[in-house]
């Protein structure tokens, strides 16, 4: 198999972790990880023991925005955002159930404590969560600019309390109607 990122260069087996083998490129350090292998490894590894390293989040990202080609089946891979804390995206071939990790992305997942739940990132729910969070941050910033950080904190605390309240809708109704 040839590396999908630098083309030409061959992929060779390499351990990402003890018991977790991926097809790795010696040139760009990218790795093709079979999710079947991954699931087996995740089930048989105690991930709670690992200490999260507090280093800066750095991993190379394929600068070409275009989709990567699966080295196994030559279909286009789909890009999935990891989260708002990083611009890195993971590539997945849903046909082969193989993920492509650019150099440093495995380490990045470990730093974010996501290395035990990799397949979750490839779900619509995870991606929707990221979009929702991003939207929330945009709205939040607008209100912080408007009323200041301190007051916004109070509003946010109230909202967090309200979100969990069983009579949420009644309380909301009260707040709204009391200003009418
Ligand atoms: Zn490569
Ligand atoms: Zn494929």
List keywords for this structure.
180 residues, binds zinc ion, six-stranded antiparallel beta sheet, 19% strand, elongated, alpha+beta
Can you tell me about this structure?
The longest helix is centred in the C-terminal third of the chain and has 24 residues. This protein folds into two domains: 107 residues, no CATH class; 50 residues, no CATH class. It is built from six helices and six strands. The protein is an alpha+beta fold and 180 residues long. The chain is elongated. Strands 1-2-3-6-5-4 form a six-stranded antiparallel β-sheet. The structure holds zinc ion (2 copies). This is Transcription factor zinc-finger domain-containing protein. It comes from Litoribrevibacter albus.
